[in-house]
Design brief:
The protein is mainly beta. The chain folds into 3 domains: 3-111, Immunoglobulins (Immunoglobulin-like, Sandwich); 121-205, Immunoglobulin-like, CATH 2.60.40; 216-300, Immunoglobulins (Immunoglobulin-like). The chain has one helix at 3-22; strands at 27-32, 37-39, 43-50, 55-62, 65-70, 75-79, 86-96, 101-103, 107-111, 121-126, 132-133, 136-144, 149-156, 159-164, 170-174, 182-191, 196-205, 216-221, 227-228, 231-239, 244-251, 254-259, 266-269, 277-286, 291-300. A hairpin with a 2-residue loop joins strand 13 (149-156) and strand 14 (159-164). The chain starts with a helix and ends with a strand.
Amino acid sequence: MTKIVKCFVLLVFLFIGSCFNYERAPEVILTSPADGSYIRDSVKVYAEAIDNTEVRFVEFYIDSERLTVDSIYPYSFIWYPTISPGWHTIFAKAWDNKNNIALSNLVSVMIIDTTDTEPPLIGIISPAGWSTVSGNVLIRTQVSDNVGVSKVVFYIDGDSINTDLDAPFEYLWNTTGYADDYHSILAKAYDFGGNWANSLITVRVNNDTADHQPPQIAIVAPASWSTVSGTVLVRTEVSDDRGVSKVIFYVDGDSVAAVMNYPFNYLWNTTNLTNDYHTVLAKAYDHSGNWANSLITVRVNNQ
């Protein structure tokens, strides 16, 4: 390849490269205010913009409506909000000298109503205070305000865990990351004037799925310290939150019967025992092995 051809190819590449550079859009980002900011009176809006050639100007928009333009770095303006209180969106649009355009990030801000001094009303309606919860629990609130509610912030044990900006202002709380113990839930409501109120409850978290609750049992017949003879029906009343598996009967400490089915009674033949005082014990088990017993003393008299 001759030098002339090589120079021509190089010029072509340089020309194409310069064309591509001219088509490159600028870059722009809003640096102030921060997303989620509350604005009461005024705020300075900043944008950082760069380009491979030159930034001509930066336009600033509020809720998609162009508010102002700045052609001098640093690109900024002071905003005195005259729009209605509530959430509004700010973004910037940068132009370079080849009319390439770039859009910035969106920033949401809360315009506060400075004339409103009345706080909202809030109550946690679910779960109930001092109740026991497990797994995923929906924290439900009831909130109202004379102007409007802007957000509800949820706290567990004083730590902020969620911010809800829309009704019905709820939060699905995963309790499995918390110890089985008592925990506080606080919901803090804000209105568009920056006024706030909160509601606090305490609940018990219990994610232990094992059964630790023993059954309940009582010998209801014969009566303790009564006199019995012949064949006696030993009757029990037994209950358990997950079910009774069996009841074992003991006379004077010796196992005499195991009853596996309701109504968990035992027909006791007293004729094999001496005429004296004897103990009768009924021991109930649930399906997890928890147990409880009931003990009586009776006098056997078969004369």
